[in-house]
Design a protein that fits this description.
eight-stranded antiparallel β-sheet
Amino acid sequence: MRFLPRLFVTLSLVILYSCGGGGGGSSVSAPAPTPAPTPAPTPAPTPEPTPAPTPEPTPEPTPAPNTDPTAMDVTVLNDGDVGDIWGGNTYLSFFDELNGYSDCTDETAGTESCASVDWEVVIDNDRGEVLEVTYLADAGHAGLVVGPSPAVNLSDYSDGSLSFDIKILDDGASNLSGGFYVKVESGSQISGELPISGIEATGEWESINFPVSSLTASGDLNLGSITAPMVFFPAIQTGAGLIYQIDNVRFTGIADGAMPPTEPNNGGSGTTVNYDLLQFGAGNVSDVINPDSYRCAVDFGNWIYNAGVVEPAIPACDASTNIPSGTPIKLQPQIMGPALNKKVPTHRWWGSIPFLGEMTVGDFNDPAHVTADPIRARVSNKGARLMGLPSGYQLRGNFPQYDGPEPFAEVFDGIAIANSKYSELNAYLVDYSDGSVTVGWTTSNMTTVMQATFVHGSPYVYFTVFDGEPIIVTKAVDGPEKGTFYEFDNNLGVWTDVAGIRNNFLVTGEPGTTYSNIASNNITITKPNDGTTYTAFTVSYLPALEGIPGNGMIDYFASRARNQVSEVNINYSVDRSTNTVTVSHDYLDSDGNSVDTILGMHPMHWKFSDQTTSNYKIRSARGVIKFAELSSFEYQIPFVGVLPLMPSLPNTYDQNTLEQYVQDYISGGEDSWINSTDTYWSGKAYGKAAEMAGIARSIGMDQEADQVVTWLKEHLSDWFTAETNGELDELRYFVYDEEWDTLLGIEEAYGSHQRLADHHFHYGYFVRAAAEICRQDRSWCSEDQYGPMVELLIRDYAGDSGDDMFPPLRNFDPANGFSWADGKADALQGNNNESTSEAANSYGAIILYGLITDNQDLVNKGIYLHASTSAAYWQYWNNIDGYNNLGADYDNFIPGYDKITTSIIWSAGADFSTWFSPAYAHILGIQGLPSNPLIFHVSQYKDYMEDYVTLGLSESSNGKPSGLPEDQWRDLWWNLWAMVDPESAIADYETMAPNYNTEAGETKAHTYHWLQTFNALGHIQTGTGDLTANHPAAVAFKKNNEMNYVAYNFGDAPLEVSYSDGKTFTVPANSFKVDN
């Protein structure tokens, strides 16, 4: 099962905590099922959660007095009722694993839906009314909760005890073997989940005095603001059949001279919570989210957002105010071992592992697969199901993909690796590198049972089993669906042919490994009889879709099967004389030494590399994979170039018309420039304003440019500071989540918290806007101003290896060479990415910012990311080599697919669709926004682009942008069309301008300026590698066979720019130069 430890939201300066901000209601954070992996920075998970010293309650239980608490105590629960100071029985509830760890009670209605527990107030012969709690025979992890309520100040009880009386009527099926645990919360902070000793289960009343000093030992709990005075539960998996009565729960031992509190701290509003600010130049971020930021939506359920990395469901939501009730259930990274000492990675082709761990066999809510391609795997609670992605890859309507039949079964097509001793396991991320991931399976007490390392592109999966014997599981015994094709020494070949999907796997153990029950559907692998304490073997996927693999293929793949790859380092270098990028892949063993292996090189690898490949190849999700024997390889990709904006060229536009469009934007009022407070739509508004500021400055409208830049500074500085007047902001601020090693913007958009989705899209707009501010006022990006905040955003979505706050390249996957949008990656098809142009915008913004601040490391990183994004777009989204008919191996699209492009790339396929619309104008148009000089790559191939525009406008009433419906981005399509045929784009534009609706990130001034500038310059010529430049902000165009060279100099001294065709010229400081 997946552990959900520490289900709270943490918030250290004082802020007002309003009930309206999501802190009210009767739900409290469910305790962590124990044992659980301790989150970083603890070096390793521990079998028992002991964040604080074990308390020392009264060593021998004594009969409890049959009296009410004294007047100096603070009652929590007595006679079956919650004390008035905590709000009464409205604040009595239970959490239940079988109800998703949510509050399974409706205290207002007096109803409950708990699947694990029942409770009632009963009459005890000795004490009168008491609360009796019964755990059902099949109970999951569940417990009693008092709170969260308006906060109560218990500071005067710091030397006292949390005391209660308990009678165990039935110690359950597990004989209460794990004992009880208690937790206390102060809003966002908790005591830790602490074991209670001294309960002997005698069947009589026992009095327990739990020291408050143990509750505060962790340093986290704020006694001055207790909101959940008691969360009480048996250890995980020990509750079934347990029956107990509890009474007289109170805080005792008040300080001398003090008086007990008589009411909450001013009710909900005014409750204090704590936060710390992390300072970056003139900016800062909070270390916690303000609960007043919480929002929710009602849509076939109640869903919370703006609450961090949490479960989406919330007990209640006020649809009129979008204010939730209840405490968000915080998710914890599923990591252990070496991964605990690294920053938590997300995205990647294995992104579900750190988020979710194992998938449960048979559970339709657990669809995630990891895609090493050509191997596809489902990491489950029983082990790993392995499939050859090429084996089941096929065209399904418009979607080339491999769903896999019976995707939730332990095995169907292919094989599974299970364990003879354990049928229920937990999975964690153990380690990762640029191109590999290691998964570990453990028992419930965190004993490691086995591990597997997956390597992107590799035919191999490397297994080590530490306890029990590994089992090769197949759907069928020997027969038409399964058989063996090779058995020699330490090798066994197993084929499966299920539902028309053929797989051939070769299992290779260490010398002396044996196999038994080979004809069955449960083949046992036995380790050598040489004293080895573990079983190590490799599963190889053989690239044969029909029949039995030949001996040559078997020998080839067996020859390197036990050369285990433990780590893949992927590095880049930029030749700044041409800005060509070289990407290198190095395959290393566990000691960091180079290791010879066999690798499946993907199309973007072998097409741009001199690496010799074998004759073994197979078609998979990205195209034809070619296998090569190597320990490293490298490939080169070109860079198209970027500009801060399009130059304003004399005699190419009407000055009055452009000035009027700028003035229309200004006169609309600053309130019209933005209509959102979330990170995505705010970012688009800032990107749009940055373009406007640049255009206005370039045509001499300095006053208007100053106004827009000032507005951008005000807005970004607001985002870049987390408090106002000494209080934590509610909107427009950033939070650093040190558990997930990520930066969260408030407000959330499109799962940017819960799934850590789209950070490169969202934050890239911020960086692009900041780059324009700093181009016009470099001081704003200085170390003592907001430069460190801009770089913090870059570090979140494109951090360096070894960053002390963020994982390397969060969104960008070096192994695949492009970005993933989703952090959680829990879909059946794996991860996905849609808009390559928004990715290019984010990486191009890094280049601009690096050039402005003279940070060449940022420039080089941005060039690498941008160039790789561009190359992947043309290979995997657009299949440019297939379009150009270079041959079957070069055609990356599956035979039968009838489109020249796709829009969404999945780990195991692709879609011709968008997330929000079936319209072709959206499906193809989304690769063209934002329309700015950071996405020149989309038009590199003119013939293709002309057909692309035709397809995108094929549903238009006249085949032109003017014939599109109002909401289908006419202006973006004029802009895309202008990149290859500006005359036609302008002619259609002039039939409507200015009477059309703009796309959210576009302005009429920008569209007009873009069309006229492309009409003057022509089609982009850099980017394919045929023409290069020695400056990142230098590009070239061709108009009627005449070359036009454009460069921008961000420096304070003249800059010499040269092109590979021999063209050279000098660019003045802080200026454009256009030459021909």
